[in-house]
């Protein structure tokens, strides 16, 4: 210990570190090895002391996080993530391996969580509570550099007497003094890139940093972090206690691993009373703590509870690589690119190493860092393109390392939250399968439904939706519930997403939306988010949806996505969710379909045409749902598209016919115009298979096409005329198509049609050949006889009178009853 | 040079001022001298300046003695650093970018700063022969005296090799593939064999090569992977901000307009801004507010094209309109620039018009004009 040139000779070993700094981690290990302390004190929540032994467990694999949460409100939580290259983790493992007690000395989570709660209460009116969940965790976790932000406090809100005083970023000040524009980079150059061994004295780096921090704190005080005073007071008290306890070994036997920012404060000479006074009166709540698995992605700044480091994968590599980190790293990159089928040779690696090192020299850095290697990889291996670089960033620089936590770790708060919800909703988990009917108009039932939907999103398949009894009603849901033991494991796994069912489901949905690659995936997700009641996840999902829709060039997929959206809208309406944004996205989708559909309909084969016809049907229905009581703009544009489809010759017959039919049904196409279109489609020049396809599109399917023919005999006459004119050779070609078309009709409709045809044939037989005569008959409406059959008409009169109520004649009713069938036929 | 037919006639001092466009090393001779004096860092063998000084020459700065170095390239520092560093390694430098991103400009200034000579240039075309990269023969001499070193006509690349200079190849991808590949030996073995004489020319230290290529029409003559491996690639980006691009476009349009005697006033700036916005949005595939994603058409939509659209619109307005640049004047030009592939691009354009242009405040006229021209 005499080698450590501490300013207070014989004082405790204060190791000021940068959280998650691999260089700091190496230095800490070297310093601990050299000093061999009898107790290691670590900055962290003391509640975690009991769980420290788990760190030595075989099944414990970093990255992991200490998660503290309020017992009665699992949503109030804070995370202390630790990666394999975190100095704190190294210190814990060192202590466990050497049989030395390790202790956390930061302010207990019970206090920091309570302080966060207090702060929020104060700012409630000023700030929306959207980001309330996990705010404490985010803040605490984000403390990046040597200096850190205080744990539980809102990011932007100034508090304390210094109100407007800016928080000082100690690293930025030091970096600026050294002429660096990027503080992270300065720290890397000044501290992280020194490999141990180059320094003869393992304590020297800590001395340098401590001195610099001391100078900074002299100038800036607490740098605007008022809360730090309390924390540091607590740390000092703990340090004193440890020194007393290990008095027989001397002060040197106590090592402290904490953020470099706190080192000067721990050296400060204060009285016990003063420190006690600072801590006194700090609010407290009941907190629980456990280990949860963590991922590299979550350590990265841009996702969730960032830990303030952009490049955990790179740091992990720096820490793991025994030597030549740049060469090893670039070899790893080359390996990844090869896996992705990019030809990368060893020559590429050699050149990249050279470029990175020369770049470092030009930039005046001691060793090539991440920036240099990325530049080199881009120029040498990726041909200047950023696309493969994105892959490298995702897979290597951030990396997808997943931590593991032994089963013996205490239950995650998500499980507690679920238990609480189960109790309050009176939905007890039972192993026996049972069905539950939910009436969504009731508050309790709606909450149950939301819970089940959320759990489903999280992969906890407690309830599966069953086919409802009520059929088409949208306010009823039927669930089949069955709690199996492994679901508890699922809940534990889902614990990485959040501490409450709501926040976990929201985080899960957001992450899925980001990861989704196809439009259908996102629409399905949107459809699931609505019943799950995840308003906070919806913006992310909708954004992903809009993005996918904008980039998807396949109209078929766009059209496939629309019905689900329209359904969601309708569903949202039932649950009085705000679906305005969803409506906008759906309208945007309709616009894109309107633009893309006409060109997409050209040059299709029979199968393609049939599929496109289904799309046209779906979009039509969806547009109807969308424009219900909204801006009629999309409906008008859709109508224009249908018109275009109906009239364009290059469009396959089945789609043309369908478009004409949809327009006719909506009353957007006059009957005679429809007849004209049919006439054009069935004119002699058209190849018979095309014409038959048109007929299928127009009257095919179970959508009431048959009834249309029954009612509009002019159309029937047109078909009849065309069919009788088809040459015998072609007839066999069109027969299967027609059979398919007409076999879809209900038997009653088919029979009526047959009767009509027969009658039409009878009427026409006098004047010419086939059904064409129906048109030829001068006075006759097609399908009707030439004159008026007065006897039959008279027989109808009494019934008509009865229906219209003009003449009371009850006696006349009964004798005419048997004629009603005919009446329906004639008057319909 | 004693060999007739070479283009590297050095301009004499007396003619330098009269030149329409002097070479970079002549135009900025003062700055290069000042940099060389102030530069105390290590210079790679054969270099006139250290890599740091070359980067400063391109990006601008102020020297300790107060000399102001004007910025030659406005863009990310990182790119220039990678480019300069590449020249110091033994890989060649390939500058990629859409037309109008100052590739040639950067390559000229790099060569001027590194070797003090930017004239060792091979212009790539579809008809560039192998002689332009390796060597040719002076046939009169060849017939009179037989094959000898004197009958050889060296290419700029060959001269750069023997003198340890920086050679430049413009539009590398336009050169036929077999001719391109003659660079492979030069770049990997740093030697140029002359089998006719049983000799070779070995590159002197300091030799390197800068090639430029247009990355939108890579397909013209894509580099073989063997050749590509010899290059470090640096992509020169388009202007980073809309303001910068609007500035470039209006300045160029102003210059062009004066040359063509087109009347043009400041009232056109809104239209220029609009053209730049449309181009940027379609190029980037996202609207300026970052809210909506868009499909990108197949055309390059470079700043150079925006300039030509605006110039065109000005000509329309001057000769057939009221002299003021209006939406109708640029709409047709934009359509022409965007829709290169009649099937796919038209859909992209219509989507853009219907989903973005229609909704935007103050773009009603433009929307109408677009509908008119694309109907």
UniProtKB/TrEMBL annotation, chain A:
Annotated region described as Disordered, given as residue ranges: 118-164, 807-828
Provide the coiled-coil residue spans: none
Q: Classify the source by domain of life.
A: Bacteria
Low complexity bias: start-end ranges: 152-164
Residue ranges with Basic and acidic residues bias:
130-151
Q: Which InterPro entries match?
A: DUF5682, LolB
Protein name as it appears in the record = Uncharacterized protein
UniProtKB/TrEMBL annotation, chain B:
* Pfam families xrefs: AAA_5
What range(s) does the ATPase dynein-related AAA domain occupy?
93-231
Gene Ontology MF: a single term: ATP hydrolysis activity
Q: Which Gene3D superfamilies match?
A: P-loop containing nucleotide triphosphate hydrolases
Q: Supply the InterPro entries for this chain.
A: ATPase_dyneun-rel_AAA, CbbQ/NirQ/NorQ/GpvN, P-loop_NTPase
Lineage, top-rank taxon, reads: Bacteria
Return the protein name: ATPase
């Amino acid at each position: 210990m005499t080698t450590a040139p501490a300013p207070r000779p014989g004082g405790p070993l204060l190791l000021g570190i940068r959280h998650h700094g691999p260089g700091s981690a190496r230095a800490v290990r070297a310093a601990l090895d050299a000093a061999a302390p009898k107790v290691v004190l670590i900055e962290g929540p003391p509640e975690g002391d009991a769980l420290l032994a788990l760190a030595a467990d075989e099944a414990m694999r970093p990255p992991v996080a200490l998660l503290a949460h309020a017992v009665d409100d699992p949503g109030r939580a804070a995370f202390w993530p630790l990666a394999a290259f975190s100095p704190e983790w190294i210190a814990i493992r060192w202590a466990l391996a050497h049989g030395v007690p390790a202790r956390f000395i930061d302010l207990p989570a019970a206090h920091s969580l309570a302080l966060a709660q207090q702060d929020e209460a104060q700012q409630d009116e000023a700030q929306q509570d959207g980001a309330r969940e996990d705010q404490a965790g985010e803040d605490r976790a984000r403390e990046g550099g040597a200096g850190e932000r205080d744990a539980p406090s809102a990011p932007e809100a100034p508090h304390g007497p210094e109100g407007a005083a800016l928080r000082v970023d100690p690293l930025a000040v030091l970096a600026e003094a050294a002429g660096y524009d990027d503080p992270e980079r300065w720290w890397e150059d000044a501290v992280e890139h020194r490999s141990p061994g180059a320094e003869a004295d393992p304590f020297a780096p800590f001395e340098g940093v401590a001195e610099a921090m001391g100078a900074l704190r002299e100038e800036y005080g607490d740098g605007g972090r008022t809360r730090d005073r309390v924390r540091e007071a607590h740390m000092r008290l703990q340090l004193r206690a440890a020194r007393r306890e290990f008095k027989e070994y001397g002060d040197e036997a106590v090592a402290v691993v904490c953020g470099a920012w706190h080192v000067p404060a721990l050296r400060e000479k204060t009285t016990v009373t003063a420190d006690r006074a600072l801590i006194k009166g700090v609010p407290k709540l009941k907190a629980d703590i456990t280990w949860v698995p963590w991922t590299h992605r979550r350590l990265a700044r841009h996702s969730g509870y960032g830990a303030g480091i952009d490049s955990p994968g790179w740091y992990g590599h720096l820490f793991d690589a025994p030597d030549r980190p740049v060469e090893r790293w670039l070899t790893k990159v080359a390996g990844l690119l090869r896996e992705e089928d990019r030809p990368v040779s060893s020559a590429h690696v050699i050149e990249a190493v050279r470029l990175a090192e020369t770049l470092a020299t030009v930039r005046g850095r001691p060793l090539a860092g991440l920036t240099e290697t990325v530049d080199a990889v881009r120029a040498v291996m990726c041909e200047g393109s950023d696309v493969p670089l994105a892959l490298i960033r995702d897979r290597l620089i951030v990396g997808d390392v997943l931590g593991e936590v032994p089963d013996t770790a205490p239950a995650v708060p998500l499980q507690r939250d679920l238990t609480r919800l189960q109790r309050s909703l009176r939905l007890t988990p039972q192993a026996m399968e049972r069905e539950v009917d939910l009436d969504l108009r009731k508050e309790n039932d709606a909450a149950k439904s939301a819970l089940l939907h959320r759990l489903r999103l999280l992969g906890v398949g407690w309830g599966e939706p069953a086919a409802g009894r009520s059929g088409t009603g949208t306010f009823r849901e039927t669930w089949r519930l069955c709690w199996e033991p492994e679901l508890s494991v699922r809940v534990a796994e889902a614990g990485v997403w959040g501490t409450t069912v709501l926040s976990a489901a929201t985080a899960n949905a957001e992450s899925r939306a980001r990861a989704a690659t196809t439009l259908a995936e996102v629409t399905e997700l949107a459809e699931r988010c609505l019943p799950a009641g995840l308003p906070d996840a919806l913006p992310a999902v909708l954004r992903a949806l809009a993005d996918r829709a904008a980039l998807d060039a396949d109209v078929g997929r766009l059209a496939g996505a629309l019905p689900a959206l329209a359904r969601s809208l309708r569903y949202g309406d039932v649950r009085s969710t705000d679906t305005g944004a969803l409506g906008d996205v759906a309208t945007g989708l309709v616009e894109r379909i309107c633009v893309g559909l006409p060109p997409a309909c050209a040059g299709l084969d029979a199968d393609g045409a049939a599929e496109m016809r289904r799309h046209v049907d779906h979009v039509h229905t969806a547009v109807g749902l969308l424009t219900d009581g909204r801006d009629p703009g999309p409906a008008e544009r859709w109508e224009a598209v249908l018109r275009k489809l109906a009239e364009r010759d290059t469009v396959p017959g089945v789609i043309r016919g369908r478009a004409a039919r949809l327009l006719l049904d909506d009353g957007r196409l006059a009957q005679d115009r429809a007849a004209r279109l049919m006439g054009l489609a069935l004119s002699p020049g058209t190849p018979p298979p095309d014409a038959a396809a048109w007929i299928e599109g127009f009257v095919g399917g179970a959508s009431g096409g048959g009834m249309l023919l029954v009612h509009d005999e002019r159309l029937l006459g047109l078909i009849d005329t065309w069919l009788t004119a088809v040459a015998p050779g072609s007839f066999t070609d069109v027969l299967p198509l027609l059979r398919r078309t007409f076999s879809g009709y209900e038997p009653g409709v088919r029979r009526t049609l047959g009767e009509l045809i027969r009658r039409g044939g009878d009427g026409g037989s006098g004047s010419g050949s086939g059904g064409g005569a129906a048109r030829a008959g001068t006075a006759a409406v097609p399908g009707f006889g030439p004159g008026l059959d007065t006897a039959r008409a008279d027989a109808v009169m009494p019934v008509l009178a009865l229906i219209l109520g003009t003449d009371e004649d009850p006696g006349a009713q009964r004798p005419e009853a048997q004629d009603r069938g005919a009446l329906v036929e004639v008057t319909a | 040079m004693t060999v007739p037919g070479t283009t590297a006639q050095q301009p004499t001092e007396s003619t330098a001022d009269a030149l329409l466009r002097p070479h970079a090393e002549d135009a900025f001779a003062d700055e290069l001298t000042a940099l060389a004096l102030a530069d105390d860092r290590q210079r790679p063998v054969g270099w006139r300046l250290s890599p740091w000084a070359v980067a400063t020459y391109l990006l601008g700065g102020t020297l300790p003695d107060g000399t102001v170095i004007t910025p030659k390239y406005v863009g990310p520092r990182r790119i220039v650093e990678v480019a300069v560093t590449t020249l110091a390694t033994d890989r060649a430098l390939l500058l990629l970018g859409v037309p109008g991103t100052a590739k040639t400009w950067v390559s000229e200034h790099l060569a001027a700063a590194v070797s003090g000579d930017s004239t060792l240039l091979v212009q790539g075309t579809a008809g560039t022969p192998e002689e332009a990269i390796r060597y040719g023969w002076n046939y009169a001499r060849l017939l009179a005296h037989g094959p000898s070193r004197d009958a050889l006509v060296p290419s700029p690349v060959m001269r750069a090799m023997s003198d340890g200079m920086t050679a430049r190849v413009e539009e590398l991808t336009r050169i036929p593939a077999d001719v391109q590949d003659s660079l492979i030996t030069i770049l990997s073995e740093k030697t140029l064999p002359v089998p006719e004489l049983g000799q070779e020319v070995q590159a002197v230290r300091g030799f390197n090569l800068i090639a430029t290529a247009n990355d939108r029409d890579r397909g013209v003559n894509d580099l073989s992977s063997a050749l590509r491996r010899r290059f470090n690639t640096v992509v020169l980006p388009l202007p980073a901000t809309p303001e910068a691009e609007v500035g470039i476009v209006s300045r160029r349009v102003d210059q062009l307009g004066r040359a063509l005697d087109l009347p043009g006033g400041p009232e056109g700036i809104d239209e220029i801004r609009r053209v730049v916005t449309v181009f940027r949005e379609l190029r980037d595939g996202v609207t300026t507010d970052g809210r909506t994603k868009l499909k990108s058409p197949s055309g390059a939509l470079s700043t150079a094209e925006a300039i030509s659209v605006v110039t065109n619109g000005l000509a329309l307005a001057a000769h057939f309109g009221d002299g003021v640049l209006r939406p109708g004047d640029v709409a047709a030009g934009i359509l022409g620039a965007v829709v290169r592939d009649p099937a796919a691009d038209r859909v992209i354009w219509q989507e853009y018009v219907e989903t973005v242009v229609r909704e935007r405040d103050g773009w009603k006229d433009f929307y109408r004009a677009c509908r008119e021209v694309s109907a």
